[in-house]
Amino acid sequence: MFKKISLFVLLFINFLLVNAQEKIPFRITKHNNIIVKALVNDKDSLDLMFQIAMEDASISPERKRKADHIVFKDEISENNTIKIGKLTQKNIQFYDNELTGHEADGKIGTGIFKGKAFKIDYDNNQFLIYDKMPELKGYESTPLFSENGQFYIVADNVIGGKQEEVYFLLQSGYSGGILYSNEFADGKELDKKLTVTGEKTLKNSAGKSIVTKQGVLPFLKLGNIVLKDVSAGFFAGDLKTQKTNYFGADLLRRFNWIFDAERKTAYFKPSKYFSEPYYKIK
Fold first, then answer.
1. What is the rounded average pLDDT for all residues in the chain?
2. Contact 44/83 with Cβ under 8 angstroms?
3. Residues of the chain above pLDDT 90, percent
4. Which of 167, 144, 120 is nearest to 269 (CA)?
5. Rounded to an integer, what distance in angstroms lies between the CA atom of residue 161 and that of residue 158?
6. CA atoms of 179 and 185, how far apart (whole Å)
7. Taking the CB of residue 19, how many other CB atoms lie within 10 A of it?
8. Coil, strand, or helix at residue 263?
9. What is the pLDDT of residue 204?
10. Please, what are the domains in the chain?
11. CB count, 10 Å around CB of 205?
12. Could you write out the DSSP letters of every residue in 78-105?
């Protein structure tokens, strides 16, 4: 009997070790941005927006809180220590004067999860960090393509009755759903094929215009999951600077995500936000 109890205890302890994890609480703004509370260099308390499209960190020129203990040289600060929840990471690099989302003093990227699998749990407003992959029951998977610390996935778009495969940059700093690149928008004639619901024109000092348009994508398919009538933005006019297709924060929040330590695969399943109304870009 004693041996059986001892074996059970050992197995239980092993289970806990295998599934060891750190939890980092976050909050979501009305603009779909994730905000975490961070202590930098044991001195500066900051609200940082999680930006999945970067590895390092940055400070905004419009921050409300002081960051006097982050020392910059040529707008870069090396070897900083950051504490978020119970997690402490050293050798964090900050960039200066980078704009960020609403309610944030700066941005923090995926470098805080380096070498570990991590989960964005929108159902419970927390990150989970794993030493080994957790249970994946109920999740689908998709290849994750990494380039310069940024992550891309592939999703199918139904445009004008045709299915188009598109590579999207995961972009948690963009509050909306999809934002198409200029090349894709022009090449697929989105101005003609999508139902346009809004339009705004701005001009620079040289009189050149940039036109932002919001439309509706009938279907977006990620794995076997289909989203309908997705909010999709694109640019027109003289100035066209959007080089990448974005999978924005409004789409990210509709799933819970798990990323493996090697950043080769993303696992996803619908979150509590899956059927929420789409965010409106103003």
1. 91
2. no
3. 82
4. 120
5. 6
6. 9
7. 14
8. coil
9. 66
10. 23-114 (2.40.70.10), 140-270 (2.40.70.10)
11. 5
12. EEEEEEETTEEEEEEEEESS----TT-S
**Cα–Cα dist 248/172, whole Å:** 6
Strands lying side by side in the sheet with 126-130: 21-25, 126-130, 117-121, 255-259, 265-270, 140-143
The three-state secondary structure class of 258 is strand
Q: Which amino acid is at 256?
A: N
Separation of alpha carbons 160 and 140, rounded Å: 27
The C-alpha atoms of residue 35 and residue 25 are separated, in whole angstroms, by 9
Range 163-168 average pLDDT: 96
Closest CA to 252 of 46, 53, 37: 53
Instruction: Using the predicted structure, report yes or no on whether residue 56 has a pLDDT greater than 80.
Output: yes
84-120 burial, b if ≥16 CB within 10 A, otherwise e?
bbebebeebebbbebebbeebbbbbbbbbbeebbbbb
Tell me: the pLDDT tens digits for 201-231?
877 666 777 889 999 999 999 999 999 999 9
Burial class (CB in 10 A: 0-12, 13-18, 19+), 233: buried
Q: How far apart are CA 265 and CA 158, in angstroms?
A: 24
pTM reported for the whole predicted model? 0.90
Give the pLDDT confidence score for residue 16 in this predicted structure.
Answer: 44
At residue 4, the 3 state secondary structure works out as: helix
SS3 169: strand
For 66-93, write each residue's pLDDT tens digit: 999 999 999 999 999 999 998 999 999 9
Regarding predicted confidence, which is higher, 18 or 230? 230
CA distances from 92 to 40, 78, 80, 246 (A): 10, 7, 5, 26
